[in-house]
Design a protein that fits this description.
Number of helices: 9
Distance between the termini: 10 Å
Strand content: 5-15%
Radius of gyration: 17 Å
Mean pLDDT: 96
Pathway: Organic acid metabolism; glycolate biosynthesis; glycolate from 2-phosphoglycolate: step 1/1
Number of strands: 8
Number of domains: 2
Structural class: alpha/beta
InterPro entries: HAD-like_hydrolase_sf, HAD-like_sf, HAD-SF_hydro_IA, HAD_sf, PGP-like_dom2
CATH class of the largest domain: Alpha Beta
GO cellular component, one term: cytosol
Pfam family, one: Hydrolase
Oligomer: single chain
Helix content: 40-55%
CATH architecture of the largest domain: 3-Layer(aba) Sandwich
Order of helices and strands: EEHHHHEHEHEHEHEEH
Enzyme class: hydrolase
Low-confidence stretches: none
Length: about 220
Amino acid sequence: MCSVIFDLDGTLADTSGDLIAAANACFRGLGHGDMLDPVGDAATAFRGGRAMLRLGFDRLGFEEDALSEQVEAQFHALLAHYAAAIDVHTVLYPGAMDAVERLRGQGVRVGICTNKPEALAELLLRNLGVREAFGALIGADTLPVRKPDAAPLVETVARMGGKLERSLIVGDTSTDRLAARAAGIPCILVTFGPDGRAVEALEPEALLDHFDHLPDLVAEMLA
């Protein structure tokens, strides 16, 4: 039986609006106003909370040492802001859950491996009403390591009861590509995120322009 591992942010769901809102809440709390743009900085949002804070403090002119200190000082506040308003702007990408259900109907195991903290990923998926569709969820803090280390992918497949050699990952960034390479499994990168078709430069085994095409692509790649 085949297994498909999904990344969450930027792959299954566009979470950038709520992530950037949480970061901007931190900057407003410090008296700086909104430092990030919900559209222009969406790609940074998909690289995590620290990346967003770093970008904002850099724009404020902080030097490296002070910048790093401020990022760490505000990180837990960012997580709290995000948890309090985690699904205000977030939407699943068109066709995402239809594709997941089609895969499940074909006997494919599906799970999620994300660099979002596990509790936040659980909260978001339950709020969106889709958690029960996935047989396993591995977050950034589930294991001692996170993607691009191979271990989270290996553990996701194990918790689904699958076999690594019959698995692939669907993601959106170099983190997913590198994790797939480390685990020795194929990688599909979506082209509908902020980076668009620029992800082709990461040389994934396949590109995905719309979730409608995913079940057939999975069948072809894992035949």
